[in-house]
Write a structure and sequence with these properties.
Elements lengths: L1 H16 L13 H6 L7 H16 L3 H23 L4 H22 L2 H9 L3
């Protein structure tokens, strides 16, 4: 008898609380929301371009800075892709990725102004 009551209560709770799954899409979505949605990066070039475009918009980069930044990000993304597809052990991949990240940060420091770099660093959660 207890089992039947327990199963009925579970069934009812699933029916009641199951309606609360996920967010409901709104019909009046602000225009900037779709622009900021994550774009799927299928290649190193697209990842570098998307990141450079976002940084250009948020950090107000000049054209020269944008070009230098794109080259640095493309180099980084290409090296990351090669490293992740290599046959290195997980530890070696981790170490290599850390070195690549440090190198990328040094390049960004050289490209961005002090204020821009600070804004870039502070934009991470």
């Amino acid at each position: 008898m207890r089992i039947i009551i327990y199963l009925c209560m579970m069934f009812m709770s699933f029916e009641i609380f199951g309606q609360l799954k996920g967010a409901v899409p709104q019909s009046t979505v602000p225009e900037h929301i779709n622009d900021d949605r994550k774009v799927e990066n299928n290649s190193a070039k697209s990842a570098a371009k998307n990141n450079a475009d976002k940084m250009k918009k948020t950090l107000k980069l000049s054209e020269k800075q944008y070009g230098d930044l794109y080259k640095a990000l493309l180099t980084y993304e290409t090296d990351v892709e090669k490293t992740s597809q290599s046959n290195l052990s997980k530890k070696d991949q981790f170490d290599k990725m850390n070195k690549l990240n440090i190198s990328k940060q040094e390049k960004l420091k050289a490209i961005l102004s002090k204020e821009q770099y600070h804004a870039y660093i502070m934009s991470f959660p």
